[in-house]
Amino acid sequence: MSSDGSVVEHATQTIEAGSKSFATAARLFDETTRQSAVMLYAWCRHCDDVVDGQQLGHGQQQGDRSNAAACLAALEQATRCACAGRLCGDPVFDGLAEVVRRHGIPECYLLEHLAGFRMDVEACHYTSLDDTLAYCWRVAGVVGVMMAMVMGNRDPATLDRACDLGMAFQLTNIARDVVEDAAIGRVYLPADWLGQEGILALHDLLDIGRRPALGRVAARLVDAADPYYRSAGAGIGALPLRSAWSIATARGVYRDIGRQVKAHGAHAWDRRIATSRMDKLWFLARGAAVAVAAHGIVARPRAGQLWQRPV
Q1: What is the pLDDT of residue 300?
Q2: Please, are residues 261 and 219 in contact by the beta-carbon 8 Å criterion?
Q3: Which residues does 62 contact at the CB level (< 8 Å), separation at least 6?
């Protein structure tokens, strides 16, 4: 399959429309890494859209679970075929096949990511932070591991740090999107934390009068993400310089989103929190400095108290 053909072009268009923050970071990769990163992203985005009945992350709604389960089974089958190197004419799965071929991505990681979508389909309940972290591993931590492989690193300590960054990103997303998620019947915040603030039912999350309490829970989740951001920072130096620049930039952008959620408190959901263009330029410059300062520093085994990836 030609890496400079329609498959890469389709993936590039997907990332530009689906995630401006990720698209900004991906532009910093060398060309080969960028191609693989956007093709992997296109598969992740497509699977999420199919399961949720949305378009490029938008228009998400509560759907028919039986239909979602059938869609998920079809995605699993197509993913297994891509891992086996069988092309199907679909740019999403042909792109995935190319990523697997180039970088030796184990099938178990791709299926683990789909298992995260299964948790949504089955409407899993998250009683404790550990439950939330298990979800974060599947939908984001494992993507961090695969991205590290795309960048050419398979050292277990570096993969752990990459997992930590994915976990931190997802914890930030949950804090930012809690009201939006609740509107379609999904709650990822730990139920025991919500209960301590008197938030006992789904409609409580949508009650504007409960926003101060919800803000405290969200701030707590942002704080829980911080050790994962710190741990991830220690793995940046093990990546090629341009990849390190990209990852340091993305880390800065997402960490800032979490800090904004915490700072806004009860008003964090008055509008969707995002990073301005000027702030992105600042994080690009800061990411370059971080990457250069960390370059060549080998990632060491991480702190044992952080959540451990199962594979």
Answers
A1: 87
A2: yes
A3: 184, 185
Q: Give me the residue spans of the domains in the chain.
A: 1-122, 124-311
Asked if residue 222 lies in contact with residue 140, where contact means CB atoms within 8 angstroms, the answer is: no
Per-residue tokens: 214:
């919800």
Task: Give the pLDDT confidence of 72-114 residue by residue, as tens digits.
Answer: 999 999 999 999 999 999 999 999 999 999 999 999 999 999 9
Helix (H, G, I), strand (E, B), or coil: what is residue 232? helix
Q: What is the pLDDT of residues 15-33, one digit of tens each?
A: 666 566 677 778 899 999 9
Provide the residue type at 299 as one letter. Answer: A
Gap between the Cα atoms of 38 and 193, Å rounded: 36
Q: How far apart are CA 114 and CA 59, in angstroms?
A: 20
Question: Residue for token digits 């404790």?
Answer: 128
- Which residue is it, tokens 């993936």? 11
pLDDT band at 54 (very low <50, low <70, confident <90, very high): low
Angle subtended at Cα 45 by Cα 133 and Cα 91, rounded to the nearest 5 degrees? 140
Choose which CATH entry (1.10.1660.10, 1.10.600.10, 3.60.15.10, 3.30.950.10) describes domain 124-311: 1.10.600.10
